[in-house]
Every structure is written in structure tokens, then in C-alpha cells.
Amino acid sequence: MTAEKLLGNSKYQAVCYGGYRTNTRAVEPTISQLKEDMKILSAMNMKLIRTYNVHHQETANLLQAIRELKSEDANFEMYVMLGAWIDCENAWTTLEPNHNKESERNAKEIDEAVRLANLYPDIVKIIAVGNEAMVKWATSYYVQPGVILKWVTHLQNLKKQQKLPTSLWITSSDNFASWGGGDIAYHVEDLNQLIKAVDYISLHTYPMHDTHYHPVFWGLKESEKSLSEKEKVNTVMLRSRDYAITQYNSVVSYMKSIGVNKPVHIGETGWATSDHDLYGDNGSMATDEYKSGVYYKLMRDWTNSNGISCFYFEAFDEKWKDSANPRGSENHFGLINLQSQAKFALWENVDQGLFKGLERDGKAISKTYGGVEKALWLDVKTPQQTISN
Prior knowledge:
Layout: H1 3-6, E1 13-16, H2 31-43, E2 46-50, H3 57-72, E3 79-84, E4 88-89, E5 98-102, H4 105-119, E6 124-131, H5 145-160, E7 169-175, H6 189-197, E8 201-204, H7 207-213, H8 229-257, E9 264-269, H9 289-305, E10 310-312, E11 341-342, H10 347-351, E12 359-360, E13 363-364, E14 366-367, H11 373-377
């Protein structure tokens, strides 16, 4: 199995994965916990997972866990898009980030990604150089496209020298604007060369965030205000999907405008189920399990029918991401929460018995809200903005 055969193949659904259970990454998930998670994802036909860095032990342990599962069951399949974290000089320090110079840590990150890809060639099928490492709103750590190009070229050269599997695909996973689909400030020659250097483009699209930052699609037209509450919500979620499609198409358009034609897949998209601030009840009213579930199904249907892999963000809730704010949206993007409950997006999977016999941290996978949709709807708010026809 190769990346070329995996990507765009609806038989191998893709998802972003982190297995941390506590509010700090200092507490690593155990091999046993990682194996539990992989069995749960496999039961849902999610066989291609994305990780974000190799400087935490979780990634190496995850690859070991998958290898153990493969040795226990010859039919078990799980493949990995291995992320190598890239940032700029002084990132995550008290010093001013220098966006024109890269961190010395980057070389170590790439070396470790190479080591793991060679150690687990049957599992690691893609290396992604950086995560939202070029987008300029990542003010703590972003780098210029030339840094990503440098490391992508390095990895491609290792493939040519047979120091990496030749079927391994190399990409970077970044915001749609970073790939040329937005502000022309990103349209620089290093980006054009990067697009030519990667094996495919991995773009991120987040309509949920733009319900606050750019809510042109988020609200109701005058002609829609007579709809039922459920019809109103379904209508705005359909527009949210279409907004994501527009961002995807904008990257394809830019890629073709520079004479390139290669696969474009979605490296990240998702919709949080709770927020205390910009996207919650006092903000855009975007976050709840119903809207999240509708978005999940809409995006899966569209990408599956168009031969696009969608690394949905994310498999499980993780509360370290905004540990000071338990209701912060970053903690609530998972399809399954930390009480081993499947959110609305996966209720049908529970009904189908896909999780029968599986547990997470000693608990069987059940439904949130006790599976009562009327109870779920008590937490659903309808957007109040009026948008133009």
C-alpha cells in the first residue's frame, strides 16, 4: 500500500489523531491506550491517521502500537501521515519570534521523522513538513515558504538517494491561504517552487473559525427566516460546506495558474462542539454537537464522492490544547469525548454496533446526551445574523 493508492480512496478514511487524555502533554498515552484508540478508529474504517510532531514520545509509541496490532492480526491496517513540526527562531520563548530564520530544532525534527519513516515503512506513507507553519496569523512560530521548501527538497533528495522509501509522499499541511488560495501576499516564488516540489498539496479549511472572522456565509437570508429552526441550521451548515469547497477550489485554481496539476487533499477541517468565547452562545453561536455532526457528514460525503482525502480534525477530544479554559473550542474538536462518548456525528456508528466489544479507558463507547436528539437540541442556537442574497 502506498500514499498514491491511499489518498482519495474512500475505503481508507482519514482523520487527525492525538491520544492525550489529560491537560498536559507531559502525561503520555500508554501503548495500551494507543492500541485501544486504533481499534476504535479502525472500526469506523479510519485507516489513515495524521500526527503532528515527532519530538514527543507519543508518535514513536503510536507506531509501535500499530505494529503490535498488525502482528496480533494480519488483517489489521493503519497508515500514518507523519508530521514534522517546523517553527521559527525564538518560537515559544519570551524572545521576539524571528520569522525570517528557522529554529535549530527543525533539523532534529526532520532527522527523527526520517528515522521513523525508515523504521516503519509499512506504516508511515506520508511525511508532512510543518503544520500551519507558513500562515502569517500563526504569529508565535510561522516561517517563510523557503524554509518548508528547503526541507521538502531535502526529503525528496533522500528518496532519490534511496535513503527513504521511494513511494513515500512528501507534503506540507497548511492553511488554504498559505497555498495561494487567499491573499496575494502569499504568492511568492518560493511558494510556487514548493507546490512543484511536494507530491501533493495538503490544505486546511475552517469555516467554523470564519463564523467569527469572516462570516459572509454565516447567517440567514431574509427569504430563509420563515424556515423551521432545524431547516435554518441545516441551511447555514450547507453554506459552511460550500464555503470550504470554495477555499479548496481557490487552491486548485492557484496551483493550475502556475502550470501545476497534482492531487489536492484536505489535511485538516473540523467543527468544535463547545466554546466559551468567539464561537459559543455569546459569539457566533456556531459550536454544538448538531452543527458539528452535520458538517462532518457533509464534508465526508463531498470528499468521498470527489476522490479527496479529508483528514478530519479530530478523532478524540484533547484538553491540553487550552488547558486554562476547559470550555475553549480547541479542547472540543473530537468526534469522541473524554468520557468515551461518541458525539452526534457518530451516533449512527453506535447504532450499527461498530464499537461492540471496544472500550476506551475502561468504558464502552456510548452516545452523548443518552442518544436523545431532543436533549441535544436544547444546546443548539440558531445564528441571528442577516446575510445578503
